[in-house]
Amino acid sequence: MDFTNPLPKRLKEARQREKISQKTLGINIGLEPSSASGRMNHYEKGRHTPDLQTLKRIAEELDVPLNYFFCESDEIATVVLLLHQIPREKRKKLLSLIYENLVN
């Protein structure tokens, strides 16, 4: 079974959705300005993988949940983003409704 790491694709999609450059994202998460663009490019190309702390900072900066970067399918990635955008109380109600429908 062939497994392609979804992180590079998800990172690029999230960054482009926010309409910021690789350099700006890198600087915003605390990378040195001189290397910010290059490091972000390496992450998006899959040449290097950011450590967990860096990835958390990227997720916060791009307003996506951390698990979004690991979604293998576009459908699941979309569901994760949509859930993330729902306010916490409404999300709890939605999850209750989903659970009820699974049990019945």
Automatic annotation (TrEMBL):
User: One short Pfam family name for this protein?
Assistant: HTH_19
InterPro entries, A to Z: Cro/C1-type_HTH, Lambda_DNA-bd_dom_sf
A Gene Ontology molecular function term of the record: DNA binding
CDD domains hit by this protein: HTH_XRE
Q: Where is the HTH cro/C1-type domain?
A: 11-69
Q: What is this protein called?
A: HTH cro/C1-type domain-containing protein
Annotated source species? Pseudoalteromonas ruthenica
